[in-house]
UniProtKB/TrEMBL annotation:
This is LytR family transcriptional regulator. Pfam families: LytR_cpsA_psr (PF03816). Gene3D superfamilies: LCP protein. Residues 72-216 form the Cell envelope-related transcriptional attenuator domain. The keyword Transmembrane applies.
Length: 340
């Protein structure tokens, strides 16, 4: 598990905007109305400013002629603790081996398939049992919203250590000022990065960091309601409209301390497709840190993933080159070469 020292406002397009809106409450109705929010339900959790968690899902529907159009390209668990003024974010590798939280049991797939099977509700349940903590809410963002967000702040400036070439956007190594189209390509490119999906996670977080730093300037805050109106159709959540407004008022303090981390796995080849296997040690560490920020006690993680890990102790041997991982007794979906 590798810590990433970045200062991002709740590590997502939505919550960046919500935190900024905390300074301009007179615009909140216009912004919130643009988002596809959930139906009314009784919840005292947000009313009482208790710690909460949500799953951020970044989707890229229909792009690049992809086959699996319902998969979530990015998955982040976000916990907010306003009393401690703290936010903890964990990125989950999209190819992590995980049991789907469906009614059948024993359905092992890449974790990003949960969204395709049962949308955000299934993804929340799957991640909840994967990490052993409650996932209260979800926010789904079409990655295309990133383009609009970067253009809104006049572009971003960063240093890239790899060459990026995607969808006609060519960004060589070096220091660059990127517009929205370029930033989207920079955030989405995967195969040219020797770190694969892990490198893409870091690049996405780097872009969000730059946006978060710029969006808090008064000239952007004054017009953020217009931005959210544009982005509204690309954002959906099971937060209600009233809960979003309460988040704006009561949870923006959570950005006082922000810790962002990513789970790292080891590659295993199953049925012709590469999966990421997360060690029990790293799963437990992530669970402990996220539960701590939710003011919950530590709890020993016991699930299908940890049981499979116990069956495959030799797989995690640092000196072992094996990519074989025994999933005997479980169904594993075969992915095609066009799945990514």
């Amino acid at each position: 598990m590798k810590k990433i020292s970045i200062v991002i406002v709740i590590s997502s397009i939505v919550v960046i905007s919500l935190a900024a809106l905390g300074f301009y409450l007179h615009q909140e109705d216009k912004a919130v109305d643009a988002i596809k929010t959930g139906s009314s339900r009784i919840s005292k959790q947000i009313d009482q400013r208790k710690p909460i968690s949500f799953l951020l899902l970044g989707v890229d529907t229909g792009a690049d002629g992809r086959v699996d159009r319902g998969l979530s390209d990015s998955m982040m668990v976000v916990t907010l603790n306003p009393a401690q003024e703290a936010t903890v974010v964990y990125s989950i590798p999209r190819d992590s081996l995980a049991e789907m939280a469906d009614d059948h049991g024993g359905n092992i797939q890449k974790i990003n398939a949960a969204y395709e099977i049962g949308k955000a509700k299934m993804a929340k349940k799957t991640v909840s049992q994967f990490l052993g903590l409650p996932i209260d809410y979800s926010v789904t963002v079409d990655m295309g919203a990133l383009k609009e967000l970067v253009d809104f702040v006049g572009g971003i400036t960063l240093d890239t250590v790899i060459d990026v070439n995607l969808n006609g956007q060519v960004i060589p190594q070096g220091h660059h000022h990127l517009n929205g189209d370029q930033a989207l390509a920079y955030s989405r490119m995967r195969y040219q990065d020797p770190r694969g999906d892990y490198g893409r996670q870091l690049r996405q977080q780097e872009v969000l960091k730059q946006v978060a730093q710029k969006i808090q300037k008064p000239k952007y805050l004054m017009n953020i309601g217009d931005l959210m109106t544009k982005l509204g159709q690309k954002i959906s959540t099971d937060f209600t409209a009233d809960q979003v407004k309460q988040l704006i008022r009561n949870y923006h303090q959570s950005s006082g301390e922000i810790v962002s981390s990513q789970l790292l796995g080891k590659t295993a080849w199953l049925n012709g497709s590469a999966y990421q296997i997360i060690s029990t040690e790293d799963l437990q560490a992530a669970s402990n840190r996220l539960r701590e920020n939710l003011a919950l006690p530590e709890q020993t993680l016991t699930n299908t993933e940890t049981r499979l890990n116990d069956m495959n102790q030799a797989f995690f041997d640092d000196e072992s080159p094996t990519t074989y991982f025994n999933v005997r007794g479980y169904n594993v979906t075969r992915y095609t070469n066009n799945t990514y």
